[in-house]
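Standup notes
- DV: blocked on the single-chain target, sequence here:
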Amino acid sequence: MVTRSFLRLPIDADEGFPQAFRLAVAGRNYQFRLYANVAEDIVDSAPSGPLDLPTAHAFLVLSVDREEPGGPVTILRRKLVPDVEYPAAELALTFRTMRLDLRNLNAAGSFGSEVVGGVALV
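- DV (later): unblocked, structure below
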């Protein structure tokens, strides 16, 4: 099994979701987009603290596009599960922590949300 050295992704959960950022890796530019998919019944029940994702009715989705001269090329779009390594063309991605407070849906604030992910070259 290959052991990869992952660099932490610049995700700031306090900025809320959806969230997007550009990142250069090994001389290539990538666009990362994260969004939360949360069922209406979970939103209506308004848990008092952050949810550890994924649950049966709430999860994060990551989309990664590589910037090419002809336009962006999608190399990954996945529902995320902790501690799974996702191949994305020349990249590998993994997420260690995915905790979402519902107040960070479409809103910024320090409510205890935390998303920790990493990227490596394959």
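- Follow-up: The radius of gyration is 15 Å.
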